Amino acid sequence: MSQPPRDTTEEMTLSVPMAEGSSPMMPKIVRFADLARCGGELWIEHEGQLYRLQKTKQGKLILTK
């Protein structure tokens, strides 16, 4: 598996506004385009593991470890 560029592995905070009418108790809905501002992929760190979420040419999402 390829690794994300070094500068993207730094800890960062992403502030995504809550949708109008949303409740903190409801699941949050975030658009992929808002998360992947730099292109068609993003890296997710979960419990020490890296996952790659990418958008295909057909517009589908693929999550790989």
CATH topology: Complement Module, domain 1
| Number of domains as seen in the coordinates | 1
**CATH top level?**
Mainly Beta
Derived structural class: mainly beta
Quaternary organization: single chain
* Count of DSSP H/I helices: 1
The number of distinct β-strands equals 3
CATH homologous superfamily assignment: Complement Module, domain 1
Order of helices and strands: HEEE
The CATH architecture classification is Ribbon
- Classify the beta-strand content into a percent band: 25-35%
Instruction: Give a short account of the largest sheet.
Output: 3 strands, antiparallel
Which outline best applies? globular
| Helix content range | under 10%
Mean pLDDT: 78
Compute the separation of the termini in Å: 8 Å
Low-confidence stretches: none
Strand order of the largest sheet: 1-2-3
> Radius of gyration over alpha carbons?
13 Å
